[in-house]
Amino acid sequence: MKKHEFICIVLALLFILPISVSAQSRNLEDGIGGPGFEFSMGIIDYELRNFGLTAAYSIGGIMDIGVFADREIGTLSGYERTDINAGFLYNIIVVKQTENVPFNLQMEGSYGYTNVSSDYLDFFDVQMVGQGFKFGISIYSEIVVFSNFAILVGGKGLYKNYIFTRTDIGTERTEELKVGFLSAVSMKLDNWPIISIGAEVFYPVSDPGIIVRPSISIVNPSY
C-alpha cells in the first residue's frame, strides 16, 4: 500500500467514525461465506447504555444465521434498570449490489429473551422477564475507494415488539420504531480477515433523542 493511500485511509476513518456493520454478509461477495464476530455499544443521550456481542455465519455472502447477547442500562420507576438480552438472528440480502445494481437491500430479523433486574423490583420482590422480535430493513451502497478499502453508506428502519411479564401486574407490550442511517469502513487485505468499523445512528419515532451504535466487526471469508 502506497503512503498517500494510507494517509487517505486514516483521514477517512477519522472523518467517518463513529460508524457500523451488523451483518456479516455486508462484507462478503456473492458465493463467499464465513464466520464473523461483532462487538457493539449503544450511546443514548450521550451516555453509554448498551454493549453486546454478535456471532454469525454468512452463507454464500447472502444470508446470516447467528446469536447475540447484550447488556442494556435504563430506568424503571426512577430506579436504574439492567436488561440482559440474548437470542437468535437471521439476515438476508434480498438485492445484492452489482455493476448494474448500485445498492444492497437487506432484511434483518431476530428473536430474543430478556431478564430485567432493578432495585425497584428487588424491593417489592418482583421478577420481570421478556421476549419478542425485531425486524429491520436497510438499503446501502458500498463504495470501493481502493482495491482493499471500501466505504459503506445507507439508511435503515428497525421495529421492536417485546412482551414483558411481571409477577405483580402481569404482561405488558413494548413497541418501538426507529429510523436512521448507517455507514462503515472496511479493510479487505489478502489472506486476512475483513475488519469493519462503523455505526448506526437512530432516531426513535415516538421518543425524542438520538441513539448511536458504534461497532467493530471481524469476518473470516471462506473462499
What would you note in describing this structure?
The protein is mostly beta strands. It has a single domain, classed as Lipocalin, CATH 2.40.128. It contains two helices and ten strands. The protein has a ten-stranded antiparallel β-barrel. Strand 7 and strand 8 form a beta hairpin. The model is unreliable at 1-22 (pLDDT under 50).
In short:
The chain has 223 residues and is mainly beta.
Helix content: under 10%
Indicate how many domains the architecture comprises: 1
Q: Gyration radius, to the nearest Å?
A: 19 Å
N- to C-terminal separation?
Answer: 23 Å
Low-confidence stretches: 1-22
> What is the H/E order?
HEEEEEHEEEEE
Average pLDDT rating: 85
Structural class given helices, strands, pairing? Answer: mainly beta
Secondary structure layout plus pairing:
Layout: H1 3-16, E1 34-44, E2 47-59, E3 63-76, E4 79-95, E5 104-118, H2 119-123, E6 128-146, E7 149-166, E8 170-187, E9 194-204, E10 211-219
Antiparallel strand pairs: 1-2, 1-10, 2-3, 3-4, 4-5, 5-6, 6-7, 7-8, 8-9, 9-10
